[in-house]
Structures are given as structure tokens and as C-alpha cells.
Amino acid sequence: MASRSVYPPNRILVLGATSAIAMAVMRQLVTPAAHFFLVARSKEKLTAVAQDLLVRGALRVDMIVADLDDTQAHSQMLSVATSQLGAVDLALLAHGVLGDQAAAERDYFIAEQILGTNLLSAVSLLTWLANYCVSQGQGTLAVISSVAGDRGRKSNYVYGASKAGLNAFLSGLRNRCDRSGVQVLTIKPGFVATPMTAHVAKNRLFATPERVARGILSAVRKRKDVVYVPWFWRPIMSIIKVVPEPIFKGRDL
Ligand SMILES: NC(=O)c1ccc[n+]([C@@H]2O[C@H](COP(=O)([O-])OP(=O)(O)OC[C@H]3O[C@@H](n4cnc5c(N)ncnc54)[C@H](OP(=O)(O)O)[C@@H]3O)[C@@H](O)[C@H]2O)c1
Predict the structure, then answer these.
(1) Could you tell me the distance, in angstroms and rounded to a whole number, from the CA of residue 115 to the centre of ligand 1?
(2) Domain 11-248 carries which CATH code?
(3) How many CB atoms lie under 10 A from the CB of residue 109?
(4) Which ligand 1 atom is nearest residue 159's CA?
(5) What pLDDT digit, counting tens, does each position of 114-136 carry?
(6) What interhelical angle do 157-177 and 121-136 show, nearest 10?
(7) 191 contact partners, CB below 8 Å, separation of at least 6
């Protein structure tokens, strides 16, 4: 089916709308025709994000406060969101946790929480949203994964596993939905200076949320499948992925 999506999108659903990367994306999407529906778990932060978008000139901003770990509530929440929007041009999944790797090595239930937020909640949301977008014959499902999903490393392999699972799910979902006019975009940021990495010493590889947002929206506009943001992470990861396991396992990465 030929693409019927238009750019910029006007009916925009954002899951994890208080994420710094999501906020940068939304600011770049504000037009007098932009109608946002925001979902996040902090009412206070969500209200501030909504106010910011309205002050910048968005047409309308609706919102629901929800903990996205509660997959049982997804169906009703997404029904409300899509009926308020009327249709979905762009759904951005931006929620996620880095988690505590050391704690997850000691306690399986910490690992389960990381997998639950980053992978299982996304699978639940995307199952519903993919069926919705296929039925409307258009829409972009833009999902923030990570370069960490390209190869498991000692320092964050539980987080990496959650993103690797997400990447495989998105690849299959794209294979299923592309012919129905639905774009499934896997977004792989490297290091981004956001609250998630506030505790990490910054280096030259860190990007701003604004730069990452520009890369995301360029990929939406070009209907790409997978985007590394910034672009230089693609060659970096292509090298990291081919390092033989006997060499890789001996390094502190
Ligand atoms: N920053 C990086 O270096 C980097 C690199 C690669 C990929 N990413 C990915 O980029 C995405 C956005 O992260 P960010 O960098 O923008 O960090 P961030 O500002 O800390 O955003 C993470 C967001 O996820 C939300 N969240 C976490 N668990 C949730 C839950 N159960 N229900 C609802 N919302 C929940 C947080 O909500 P609260 O505000 O309520 O905590 C927060 O708004 C994540 O998927 C992350 O894995 C980030």
C-alpha cells in the first residue's frame, strides 16, 4: 500500500512524554495544527510539558497520567487517546529506565523490572497501536531503543537485553505492517545528556536531546526503518558488533 503519511504529523501520541528526548522532539513538532496527546506517570511534570507546548503554539494538548508498567490499563488508555486525537499520525514511545545493573546481577526481580518497563510495556503498547495504525492504513510508530541493544556489555547487559528484545520485536512488526502503510522506526541513540545519564561523566560522544530529536524527525520524514542518532553511532556499532566474542569477553566494556 502506498504511503499516505504527511509530514509534519499533526496528531501526535507520546508515551513517556516527560522524557527529555521526547520533549525535544515535541518542541520541534509544534505547529498551529499540532494536537498532542501525552502520557506519563508524573502529573506535575506532565502539566509543565503540556503548558510548554501550548505556550509555543500547539493547537491542543490532552493528557493522561499513567504508569506504563501497568499493561492491563493500556487498552483503555489508548482507546481514550486515539478517540481524542481522531487518528494517529505519529506515536512516539520514549519511556524507559536504565536500571541498576549491579543490583540486577544480584536480584532477578530488579532485572525483571527493567525488562518490564523497556520491553514488555512497549510490546503491549505496540501490539495495540500496530493494529490501530494498520486499520487506519497509515501512521508512524517511532520507538526509542538504544545502541546498547546491538551488543551485550558487562556494564549494562540487562538494559541492553531489553533493547535488543525491543529491536527484534520492531523488526518483525515492521515486516508485518510496512505493506499496510505503517512506518515502524527503530531509534538507536548513543549517549544523550538527559536525566537518565545525569550520573555519568560527560565526554565528546554525548549528544544533546535537541540534536537527537532532529535526527529522529529527519528519519520520520524520510520514512526510515532504523536510525542511529547521532549518525556516527552506526559506524561505531558496526565495528563493535564484529569484534569476535573471544576478544570481546576479555575487555571491561
Ligand atoms: N539518555 C541516553 O543516553 C539514552 C541513550 C539511548 C537510549 N535512551 C532511551 O531514550 C528514552 C528516553 O530517555 P531519556 O534519555 O529522555 O531519559 P529521561 O529524561 O530520564 O526519560 C525517561 C522517561 O521514561 C519515563 N518512565 C520510566 N518508567 C516509566 C513508567 N513505568 N511509566 C511511565 N513513564 C516511565 C520517565 O518518567 P519519570 O519522569 O516519571 O521518571 C521519564 O520521563 C528511553 O527509552 C531510553 O532508554 C536514552
Answers:
(1) 13
(2) 3.40.50.720
(3) 9
(4) 47
(5) 999 999 999 999 999 999 999 99
(6) 20
(7) 197, 200, 203, 205, 206, 207
Pocket test of ligand 1: the residue of 19, 187, 197 to mutate, having most ligand atoms within 8 Å of its CB, is: 19
Q: Ligand 1 mean position to 118 CA, how many Å?
A: 9
Q: 182-199 burial by CB neighbour count: b if 16+ within 10 A, else e?
A: bbbbbbbbbbbbbeeeee
Return the H-helix or E-strand segment holding 75. helix 74-85
Question: Residue written as cell 526509542?
Answer: 144
Structure-block grid coordinates of residue 219 = 528519519
**108 counts as catalytic:** no
For 218-253, the pLDDT digits (tens) are: 999 999 999 999 999 999 999 999 999 999 999 888
With beta carbons less than 8 A apart as the criterion, state whether 39 and 66 touch. yes
d(CA 253, CA 234): 18
Cell numbers placing 205: 560522544
Q: How far apart are CA 183 and CA 174, in angstroms?
A: 7
Count of positions (residues) in the chain: 253
